[in-house]
Amino acid sequence: QVQLVESGGGLVPPGGSLRLSCIASGSTRGIHSLAWYRQAPGKQRDLVARIVNDGETDYADSVRGRFTISRDYAKKAVYLQMDSLKPEDTGVYYCKLVKPLEAYWGQGTQVTVSS
Fold this sequence. Notes:
Blueprint: E1 2-7, E2 10-12, E3 18-26, E4 33-39, E5 45-52, E6 57-59, E7 67-72, E8 77-82, E9 91-98, E10 103-105, E11 109-113
Parallel strand pairs: 2-11
Antiparallel strand pairs: 1-3, 3-8, 4-5, 4-9, 5-6, 7-8, 9-10, 9-11
């Protein structure tokens, strides 16, 4: 089993920045990828950014150039640096850990971009 705990969400004005953190515990061996998803009110949960075990990253078109995903192996953590935030970035952000045969989700952290 793996447990994921996100933190760092909050209320920020347009143009502001936030840094989300996701800390993993439990059986973290054999990770294939770590990712951040976003779910806006009334919408499906969509991929925001992903980092694969070899370090390759992938971003949604809407956040490319503004968001940066990174990981710290020693701390079993994955981060999402979000800059130049827009109101449409509002939503609950979830961390996802993927192994070859399993996937785990965190409980989510709310990000609200509003003046």
